TrEMBL record:
GO biological process: carbohydrate metabolic process
Domain Carbohydrate kinase FGGY N-terminal: 18-262
Keyword Chloroplast: no
CDD domains xref list: ASKHA_NBD_FGGY_BaXK-like
InterPro entries documented for this protein: ATPase_NBD (IPR043129), FGGY_C (IPR018485), FGGY_Carb_Kinase (IPR050406), FGGY_N (IPR018484)
Record flagged with keyword Transport: no
Residue span, Carbohydrate kinase FGGY C-terminal domain: 279-477
Native source species: Ruminiclostridium cellulolyticum (strain ATCC 35319 / DSM 5812 / JCM 6584 / H10)
Gene3D superfamilies attached to this UniProt entry: 3.30.420.40
GO molecular function: kinase activity
Protein name, per record: Carbohydrate kinase FGGY
One matching Pfam family: FGGY_N
Keywords: Kinase, Transferase
Length: 535
């Protein structure tokens, strides 16, 4: 223990560390990693978005307050553990929730409220740009927000000098550099995989489509510069150091890696940047990222295309609903147990009931459920009605009931992934899972392995999240050997041979899930009727 403390203290004093800070939707987390790339200190700050003038947003004041608070919590953790002050570090990286819309004038003033990824106000722009580029442009993307503002004739558009994301904004203010990592940039505007830069022909198409507006700017002039992982993306300025560390102890001149999005840092934190690997983040919502060997044959509205931080093409399938409905059922069971006079702690309740799902019939005994708390774009629903449906001869017991709720939480995601696996013949060697779906040992893994018919691993480190992922990208920039790829750096310098605990798909479970999916797809009309008649 003393040896570890000395190693950590020496790394801190000699700047042999790296800092990663990620701004998620409910928490800002800061992680300090040591010379071995393992976390040695951390801090966090909880925050919530606001709904102002029909826009989901965070204020600039809240952004800086949150970043400074999270950073100070990490500094305090360093002082408490190692008895030293943090004055420098080897490198820093910032990450944030992807997409959204932040635009500034020539003086650097924010022109309109920061519009986050959560806003679904760009349907027209998304549809028109997808047709124009013949490339999927989801509503969340920055370019969809810009084009919708143009379609809405919003006054601020003519004054735009610079457009960026949340991570790009913080990076700019701390270093003076208007840049984005390629993974983050791939959620702003489509990337040309050959140049590893924004697609120039699509930029020209956009400029032509807006030429009658007579703006003083062209798209290429207001976009950030795109950088791949491993590239130095600027250095902490004197002004930036005071902005990040309000105590004034942090020294200027520290190199920054390119700012990245939460999808990219999630891939890094789960060692899923190589082709034929994938990761699934499963909690309130669920999304899967699969690194592709080649481009898809056509555009699918169900599939977003982004890149890894080192510019490999990634197919992303995002479903709005995952654990929320079965969490609600767990609440009902907790009430029942309490009413009977028993005191059962939440972890025991979840582990016991979710574990029962493994005793159910492979196809859930003929039961059907939809956990649509909200709408689901993959199956084309604007709103949701959670429900459980059975016929008179279904095998209705506890094991099957829990099992069908777990199955259906992956139903929409499976619909999207089947496009990749069946229509596009995409190959995946394994998937790494992280999030609340995997908390009960083996259960989430077995269900997901059945759904996707691939091995599913869960790493002990997956809980460290995207802040650790961006810290690793900062470390990669300063510690990699000259020709070492990101994939090799993660394998050789971070994860070694460790792939965590892996569960192989069981053929009976795979067949059972496929049988359930036939019922799920056929029964979508029931969900539609519920929406139509239950207002």
């Amino acid at each position: 223990m003393k040896h570890e403390l000395n190693d950590g203290r020496n790394a801190i004093l000699n700047g042999k560390t790296a800092i990663g800070i990620e701004l998620g939707s409910t928490r800002i987390k800061t992680v300090l990693i040591g010379a071995d790339n393992a976390p040695i200190a951390s801090g966090s700050h909880d925050w919530e978005n606001s709904y102002i003038n029909n826009i989901w947003t965070y204020s600039l004041e809240d952004i800086w307050k949150g970043v400074q608070s999270s950073y100070q919590e990490m500094v305090k953790d360093v002082r408490d553990k190692f008895g030293v002050s943090l004055k420098t570090t080897g490198a820093i990286g910032f990450s944030g929730m992807m997409h959204g819309y932040m635009v500034f004038d020539k003086e650097g003033n924010l022109l309109t409220h920061f519009r986050t990824w959560r806003n679904t106000i760009t349907a027209q722009a998304s549809e028109e740009l997808t047709k124009l580029f013949n490339y999927p442009i989801p509503q969340r993307w920055s370019i969809a927000h810009l084009y919708q503002a143009i379609l809405n004739n919003e006054e601020h558009v003519s004054n735009i000098d610079f457009m960026t994301t949340l991570a790009g904004f913080i990076h700019w203010k701390l270093t003076g550099e208007k840049v984005l990592g390629v993974g983050e940039a791939s959620g702003v505007f489509p990337i040309d995989l050959d140049t590893k830069d924004f697609n120039s022909s699509m930029i020209n198409q956009f400029n032509e489509a807006t030429t009658n507006r007579n703006f003083s700017w062209k798209l290429q002039n207001i976009l950030p510069k795109v950088l791949v992982s491993g590239t130095e993306a600027g250095r902490l300025t004197e002004e930036g150091a005071k902005l990040l560390d309000v105590t004034g102890e942090l020294q200027a001149g520290i190199p920054f890696c390119p700012p990245e999005g939460d999808a990219g840092t999630g891939m890094v934190a789960t060692n899923s940047v190589a082709v034929r690997t994938g990761n699934v983040s499963a909690g309130t919502s669920v999304f899967a990222m699969v690194v592709l060997e080649k481009e898809l044959s056509k555009v699918y509205s169900e599939i977003d295309l982004v890149t890894t931080p080192d510019a490999n093409l990634v197919a992303m399938v995002h479903s709005n609903n995952c654990t929320s409905d079965y969490d609600a059922w767990m609440g009902i069971f907790a009430e029942a147990v309490k009413t009977l006079g028993f005191d059962v702690k939440k972890p025991q309740l979840y582990d016991t009931l979710l574990g029962a799902a493994l005793q159910g019939d492979p196809d859930c005994g003929g039961l059907l459920a939809y956990g649509y708390i909200s709408g689901e774009h993959i199956t084309h629903f604007e709103e949701g009605r959670p429900m459980v449906v059975r016929s008179s001869n279904s095998k209705f017991n506890l094991a099957n009931f829990i099992r069908v709720n777990l199955f259906t939480s992956l139903g929409a995601l499976k619909t999207g992934l089947d496009i990749l696996f069946q229509k596009e013949a995409v190959k995946v060697d394994g998937i790494t899972g992280h999030g609340g779906f995997f908390k009960t040992k083996e259960v989430g893994q077995k269900i997901m392995a059945a759904a996707f018919n691939v091995p599913v691993s869960v790493m002990k480190t997956a809980g460290e999240g995207g802040a650790w992922g961006i810290a690793l990208l900062a470390s990669y920039m300063i510690n990699r050997e000259s020709s070492q790829s990101l994939e090799d750096f993660l394998k050789q310098n971070v994860f070694g041979e460790s792939q965590g605990e892996t569960v192989q798909p069981d053929s009976k479970d795979v067949d059972g899930f496929n049988e359930f999916m036939k019922r799920y797809t056929k029964g979508l009309g029931i969900e539609r009727a519920a929406i139509n008649f239950l207002n």
